[in-house]
Amino acid sequence: MDEAEECLWWLGKLYKRQHRWDDAMRTWHRLTASEGRRAAFAWVERAKYHEHIQRDYSRALADAQEALRVALHGRMGGRDLGGDDLERRLRRLRWKRSRMGTVASTRPSPIPR
Predict the structure, then answer these.
(1) Which end of the chain is least crowded, N or C, by CB within 10 Å?
(2) pLDDT tens digits for 102-112?
């Protein structure tokens, strides 16, 4: 794994722990843009942020779907993303979104500025 990518991953975790959400989202965006081995995990973190912090279930669902796409077709390097967990997350987000009456976003979320 790329050393810079690993540093970004841990930096994102630190920002998340400190509730520095804008910084965490920027870090996760950089990881997803790199399409490296941590990209799918970063998509999951973004989905969690949108689900639990923003309560934006459409964006959370789009990010979780992207995590699944990257995990299935990307360079996971043999690491298991926890497909069952991700499938449960997708089902839950679809259910929450349907309860809120929102329309699904067709794109993953933008970078916070």
Answers:
(1) C
(2) 444 555 556 65
**85 or 50: which leads in pLDDT:** 50
DSSP 20: -
Enumerate long-range contacts of 80-89, CB under 8 Å, 24 or more apart. 81/40, 81/41, 81/44, 86/44, 89/44, 89/47, 89/51, 89/64
Q: For residue 57, how many other CB atoms are within 10 A of its CB?
A: 23
pLDDT, one tens digit per residue, over 75-98 is: 554 455 666 788 899 999 999 999
The residues, ordered by sequence, that sit 6+ positions from 47 with a Cβ below 8 Å of its Cβ are: 60, 61, 63, 64, 67, 89, 93
Mean pLDDT of the 34-45 span: 91
For 86, the token pair is 């991700």
Q: Domain extents for the chain?
A: 3-100
